[in-house]
Amino acid sequence: MNTFKTYSRRKEDVNRKWILVDAKDQVLGRLSSVVATKLRGKDQPDFTPHVDNGAFVVVINADKIRVTGTKHEDKKYYRHSGYPGGIKETSFKELLESKPEQIIHKAVRGMLPKTRLGRAQLKKLKVYAGQEHPHQAQQPTAIELP
């Protein structure tokens, strides 16, 4: 007879941490995958797929993110208004100059589940273009990325 029980974490048992990530000179995809893992809580030993048990992640220096190869000129972001002919295109370079926070936000969003839970996890991501952020009171723990 098997006496082992499978542990399933409940949302009442979640103790959230705050994590600070510096995006200066980091590659976009590698940074985004680490951030998405922290938001989901997949780095926790008691990860439960149906519970939002991830940490809050604060990303600073989003304007100093880098990409490899020729993506700086070639990468495009698309959006559509819903009307015929309503497709809009923005290059990586233009978005980096105008709204650098959106680059990291879009990359992490693509790595999270496309469900209610994924949208709730994305709300825990805070991205800032410069060095300053308003989350000093939460005392975020800075992590080093490889």
In brief:
The protein is α/β, with parallel strands linked by helices.
What is the topological layout?
Blueprint: E1 18-22, H1 28-40, E2 56-60, H2 71-74, E3 76-80, E4 87-91, H3 92-98, H4 100-109, H5 116-122, E5 125-127, E6 141-142
Parallel strand pairs: 1-2, 1-6, 2-5
Antiparallel strand pairs: 3-4
Helix pairs in contact: 1-4, 3-4
Walk me through what this model shows.
This protein is α/β, with parallel strands linked by helices. It has helices spanning about 30-40, 70-75, 90-100, 100-110, 115-120; strands at about 20, 55-60, 75-80, 85-90, 125, 140. The model has no long low-confidence stretch (mean pLDDT about 95).
Q: Terminal Cα separation, in Å?
A: 45 Å
What is the helix fraction of residues, given as a range?
25-40%
Structural class: alpha/beta
The ordered H/E elements are: EHEHEEHHHEE
Count of DSSP strands? 6
**Could you list the spans in which at least 5 consecutive residues all have pLDDT below 50?**
none
Radius of gyration: 18 Å
What overall form do the CA principal axes indicate? globular
State the major sheet: 4 strands, parallel
Strand percent estimate: 15-25%
Count helical runs: 5
The overall average pLDDT, rounded, is 95
Strand arrangement within the widest β-sheet reads 5-2-1-6
Which key features would you list for this structure?
alpha/beta, 5 helices, single chain, globular, 146 residues, 6 strands, 4-stranded parallel β-sheet
